[in-house]
Amino acid sequence: MVNQKSLKRFLQYRLSLIKFQRLGFEKVFSYNLGKDVGVTAEQVRKDFSMFGLKGSKRGGYDIKYLLKTIDEIFKRNGERQVIIIGMGNIGQALCNYQGFKENNIIIVAGFDLDPAKYSKKYAIPVHSTDKMEEVIKKNSIRTAIIAVPEFAGQEVCDQLVSLGIKGILNFSPVNLKVPEDIVVNYVNLRNELESLFYYT
């Protein structure tokens, strides 16, 4: 199984490849790509070999080919659907983020315990958590964003897993306990900011 560090590097490779392409390049060498991303040429070649991406020593890698393959890896060719649980400040900010739409990421619905939020005009429909199962099954959702307070994080996670969710982006400040086949990515804005205070 490909580890998350490698996948994140592929997203960095993609940004770098787009930059090279806009500068008029059609080919790129592992050395140039690695230097731009901040890894060794050997690491680039090792990452690419995991997905059978091939280049030549003399000609390098074809940029269009790399971008096409990376898009296929991340299923960028079709709509990728996700739901948000917790429509507080973070949830509302995420549902209004235009970058998702630009990258074919569709937030199908939001869920919250507060009935007052069901009638508000958000960019997405907001439902009671009782309707999660219905929406997940109807849209074949496999990915969810958790943006609830700490005390509710694990309970929401357990419910999502029981409904077939396989990937979770967690904004709740709690380490979630999940089965081995569930992938969780954590975003803790407070910790990220506090780590910067140490360096500054």
Strand segment count: 8
- Count of separate DSSP helical elements: 9
Per CATH, the architecture of the largest domain is 3-Layer(aba) Sandwich
Low-confidence runs: none
CATH topology annotation of the largest domain: Rossmann fold
Oligomeric state, counting identical vs distinct chains? single chain
Protein structure class: alpha/beta
Taking the sheet with the most strands, its summary is: 6 strands, parallel
CATH superfamily of the largest domain: NAD(P)-binding Rossmann-like Domain
Distance between the ends: 37 Å
**Fraction in beta strands:** 15-25%
Briefly say what this structure is.
The chain has 200 residues and is α/β, with parallel strands linked by helices. It contains 9 helices and 8 strands.
How does this model look, in words?
The strands form 2 sheets. The protein has a 6-stranded parallel β-sheet, with helices on both faces. A two-stranded antiparallel sheet has the order 1-2. Helix 8 (about 150-160) links the parallel strand 6 and strand 7 (about 165-170). The chain is elongated, with a radius of gyration of 20 Å. The model has no long low-confidence stretch (mean pLDDT about 90). It is built from 9 helices and 8 strands. About 45% of the residues lie in helices and about 15% in strands. It has 2 domains: about 5-75, Winged helix-like DNA-binding domain superfamily/Winged helix DNA-binding domain (Arc Repressor Mutant, subunit A, Orthogonal Bundle); about 80-195, NAD(P)-binding Rossmann-like Domain (Rossmann fold), CATH 3.40.50. With about 200 residues, the chain is of the alpha/beta class.
